[in-house]
Write a structure and sequence with these properties.
By secondary structure, the chain is an alpha/beta fold. The protein has one domain: Aminopeptidase, CATH 3.40.630. The chain is built from 6 helices and 12 strands. The chain has an 8-stranded mixed sheet with strand order 1-2-4-3-7-12-10-11, with helices on both faces. β5 and β6 form a beta hairpin. α2 crosses α6. The longest helix is centred in the middle third of the chain and has 28 residues. 43% of the residues are buried.
């Protein structure tokens, strides 16, 4: 199945891509629902290139490199739906509260974003209406649909991280993010990944899930859903996306089986 949410705001023209792409089986009997906050790199034609070079638009500042390929590979293995944001995080970051300073950045990792400087409230709201809210509405609709069908859901937020940050090498392959709220499942996945012979995993690295995170708190917490925000090192993706997906799918399935049995 492949569905697309059509543009609903004047910011997106007829030739702009749909802001949400849904692949996989929305009503899969399996529990996993995959989301990709930073999967895409599109920029609305009305915004030009935001004043950012093509080279910088291909960097981690604009997109979670390889996360789309990983989400699709996981969706195939888990028979799960994957809700992916098509637009660059430089347009608006869908994992930040809309009024947060990091939602629309003026600089990122040393690169200026002139097209994001001194936005009017109306310009900012246009991005929220056209990109941010349709993405989260699609996730809500999917979870509502599954709940109405009597299906359990486990929310998996798929991200990737740059191997080097501010001169420091990040040598682990995976990061498991959680924040203490209903994190039994996330901790079970962390435990499973630590048992993988050729792979290394870090707990709440390279980022800590905190009050700046938006997607998991908005969708998992009110429904009391198990969740996981997984980070995968970008130099593994997309070249080794299938291999990584195999490892993660195994850990997710085993963790789900263990936590479900214990509840």
């Amino acid at each position: 199945m492949w569905e697309k949410a059509r543009p609903v705001n004047d910011l997106l023209g007829p030739n702009d891509p749909a802001c949400v792409e849904l692949t996989g089986n929305a009503l899969s009997p399996g529990p996993f629902v995959l989301v990709g906050d930073h999967a895409g790199d599109a920029i609305p034609a009305a915004l030009g290139d935001l004043g950012v070079s093509q080279a910088d638009r291909a960097r981690h500042i604009a997109v979670d490199i390889g996360s789309a390929a990983l989400g699709l590979a996981l969706a195939r293995r888990l028979d799960a739906p994957f809700v992916a944001q098509a637009y660059s995080r430089l347009v608006i970051d869908c994992n930040r509260y809309p009024d947060h300073p990091e939602a629309v950045v003026e600089t990122s990792d040393g690169t200026g974003v002139p097209g994001n400087v001194r936005l009017t409230p109306g310009q900012r709201q246009a991005r929220i209406d056209a990109v941010f809210e349709p993405y989260h509405a699609a996730i809500e609709h999917l979870l509502d649909k599954r709940e109405a069908a009597g299906l359990a859901s486990v929310l998996i937020s798929v991200h990737s991280f740059t191997p080097v940050w501010q001169g420091r090498r990040r040598d682990y392959h995976f990061g498991v993010l959680h924040d203490g709220h209903r994190d039994d499942f996330a901790l079970a996945v962390l435990d499973r990944l630590t048992r993988e012979k050729d792979w290394t995993v870090a707990d709440n690295q390279p980022y800590v899930m905190d009050e700046t995170d938006y997607t998991v708190p908005r969708h998992a917490y009110p429904r009391d859903l198990p969740y996981l925000e997984i980070e995968v090192r970008q130099d593994l993706l997309p070249r080794r996306a299938d291999e990584v997906a195999e490892v993660l799918a195994r850990a997710l399935a085993m963790a789900r089986s263990g936590t479900a049995a214990s509840r």
